[in-house]
Amino acid sequence: MPYTLTHPDHLLLTGPQGESYWGGNQDWYQDVWQRRAGCGPTTAAVLLSYLSRAHPGLAALAPTGQATQAAFLAYMEELWPYVTPGARGLDKAESLTLGCRSFALSRGCLLSQAILEIPAKEKGPRPTLRQCRDFVAAALQADCPVAFLNYSNGALKNLDSWHWVPLTAMTEAEGILLCTVLDEGEEKVIDLALWLETSTLGGALAALFPEPDLSLPAAPSKEASMIRLALPQDIDSVNDTYTELLLHEQEAGSNTSWQLNVYPTRDIAAQAQAAGTLYVMEEDGTLCASMILNHVQAEDYTKIPWQYPAQPQEVLVIHTLCIPPSQARKGLGRKMVQFALEKARELGCRVIRLDTSATNKPAARLYEGFGFRLAGELDTLHQGVLPITLIYFEKEL
Fold first, then answer.
1. In a designed cystine with 301, which of 71, 249, 271, 297 is the match (CB 3.0 to 4.6 A)?
2. Lowest-pLDDT range, 38-52, 314-328, 372-386?
3. Hey, which bits of 88-162 come out as E strands?
């Protein structure tokens, strides 16, 4: 039975000389590194562009009038800061889906995800061909393209190794699973069954779809405690936790050295939420902690003698970890830091860094308990507004 997107023509682009392209091409990027490592962001742009046109509720995901090569390249560039390859490229399926969902949130759209990991042969059992077929079929029936991550191409001669491609159609016949993928601006047909049999390193299948959507297997039920990306409606609650903490410190003495209405503020939370970098912990329906995770290192970070050098995109930075007094002594700080470490590894980061007030002994003990090393101390103007002595920590991943 054949499966295909409802409007594959949505992915047909016109070049400057009237030539036709299917989807994007990483070779269109101007930067050499982007051309080398840009298959993931290119695939993400194809997925989100199609979703924006096929699902009316997701129209804000992409601007209208993207049917030219130049317009689609501009969209690829717009998406790059959210779906950013590391030193090993975009080598995790969740790195692509998380980046796409963050980008979507910044435009007021909610996406769900489904991922089918296909491990290397020596690392345990793989999904069956039937499971791979069902995953692709469910996504295409939901009118959602599939992102295919291929670490090694096995016996497939028309597919590069260590490569992302969007998958737009599938036909099954007697043990052969022919899939249409878009690569280098062209349609190609690959046998996913042959790949599954012969690829030694494996890869993954990933899909993004409107939320809520019951056409793919349901996501696991929410636990009583969960950490997730913040939504616009969370901003007031996050700001309430800032206010609660800072009013408490005004009376009981300050560990953080933060100041009410100076730092942190509602605007800071809102900006981080719009960028898809604000994470919150929710417990039994109550927002009880928050933090910002991104690759942004303040200028003062250049003055610290870091022991573990890394490129900017290989460093995840923890900012503004806030747990209000009403939620203290419940182990939430440890859960948040553990989440940050796991997220850094998922994003392919080599190092995680942070700063905190030199007076914040509880925070220092928390980070040291996770194996962070003290890298330096500096008198600075935090966020350009708050005179403070900061201590800086790092941990190699």
1. 297
2. 372-386
3. 111-118, 146-150
* Three-state DSSP class for residue 38: coil
Q: Give the chain's radius of gyration (CA, Å).
A: 23
Encoded tokens for 357: 């007030």
- 315-322 and 351-357 beta bridge pairing: parallel
Cβ atoms of 292 and 262 within 8 Å: the answer is no
Strand partners, 225: 283
- Residues, the chain: 397
- The tens digit of pLDDT for each residue in 82-108 reads 899 888 888 899 889 989 988 888 888
Write the CB contacts of 158 (distance below 8 Å, at least 6 apart in sequence). Answer: 188, 189, 190
Q: Are the C-beta atoms of 142 and 209 separated by less than 8 Å?
A: yes
* Strand, coil or helix: 272: helix
**Which pair of tokens denotes residue 192?**
């996913």
Planar angle of CA 219, 84, 51, nearest 5 degrees: 50
157 backbone dihedrals φ, ψ, rounded to 5°: -90, -15
Task: Say if residues 382 and 357 touch (Cβ distance below 8 Å).
Answer: no
Amino acid (one-letter) located at 323: I
Give the residue carrying structure tokens 């942070």: 354
Strand partners for 341 = none
- CA-to-CA distance for 50 and 209, rounded, in angstroms? 11
